[in-house]
Amino acid sequence: MKTIFRLASLALLFVAFTSARAASAPPPNLLIFYADDLGWGELGCQGNPEIPTPHIDSLARNGIRFTNGYVAATYCSPSRAGLLTGRYPTRFGHEFNSVANATGLRLDQVTLADRLRQRGYATVAIGKWHLGGGPDYRPTKRGFDEFYGTLNNTPFFHPTNFVDSRINNDVRPVTDPAFYTTDAYADRAVDWLGRNQTKPWFLYLPFNAQHAPLQAPQKYLDRFPKITDEKRKLFAAMMAGMDDAVGRVLAKVRELRQEENTLIFYIADNGGPTASTTSHNGPLRGFKMTTFEGGPRVPFLAQWKGRLPAGKVYDHPVMNLDVLPTALVAAGAQPDASWQLDGVDLLPFLTGANSGRPHQTLYWRYGPQWGIRHGDLKLVVSRGGSGQPELYNLATDIGESKDLAAAQPDTVRQLQALWDKWSAEQAPPSAPDTPATKKKGGKKKANK
Q1: Domain made up of 28-359: CATH architecture
Q2: 76 flagged as catalytic
Q3: Which of 45, 55, 76, 359 is catalytic?
Q4: Does this model's pTM top 0.90?
């Protein structure tokens, strides 16, 4: 009995010690890399042997690669709106890029930066914002202490709509001929990390790579002498630049001895627009701005050394909406039901504490295009399709090649009803969809 009592006492002491240690541990830092128009099949860890991405791939090697990672919208601005709010952007009318052009992320929406700053975090956005250009919609009014980047899409050389909030919050021209956005964003991120190492921090780094126009310095072009297609060579060079930038930021985190206390995500904002940039979506059907898998299914990686398993491949569907609740729970906060989040805390699923699926059902709406994934079944209406709801089993048909709708009419009706109910809960678009302004350029092959 005495032995049992002693063992029980030791167990209680161990629980008390580990609980106290966890309570005293500093809150984790948060680092989000957000790539632009990347394409599901472009990273080395996603199976591309043509363009080395060792630094990005290290996140998969030291963390988790999600084979079914999704974003809540199939192009730029709504995808960002979902990431930073943890809510389907259609819930608050942010269905199209035109919302960012007309106004921006609705002012009653609370961002991840808002919530982390309330908990004492230093916050910064470095890169492409695309959530509104007016003074009230800029990052420094949406929870970020600093902003360094462009308010919208931009060239990589001589970027437009550029703001450096350390100077002022106004748009200014960039006249330095050697300025290349991807390199400059890495420079600023490394500098900011050095200046903010004494408190928990949130670094949001949304690259404009791999968005058009395709532009790259000669130093990156020189790495790909065997690629003869000019467009593809530019794309590869841009990816090399982005991978180098990721590597520099990760090296700075390690230099500061903060890697084990930093939760890191690398996610693309949507699928690649293959025809315009050569971006590959692997075996997926469709592209950016479609609701076939090539639109919302993206490269999705996470690393938190010592807390998440290393080298794990996770096959259940997850979404960019999950980043906000996952980060907040990691920081010691409990999301409130009144926030009406659509994302979930991924940590128990990734550590094995919960063996279920984070999401049984995922939804998309993009004007007349829409989709619903319920389990492994997907019902979709997309540009490039028949115009009628098409049904696919993604577990056996990742390329959405065998339409099961005619053979399973009851399933079609069930998924249609689920999507109709969800769609009725969404807000109407805050601004009508308008064609994207086509910018010239993209073939510049500058020596810088």
Answers
A1: 3-Layer(aba) Sandwich (3.40)
A2: yes
A3: 76
A4: yes
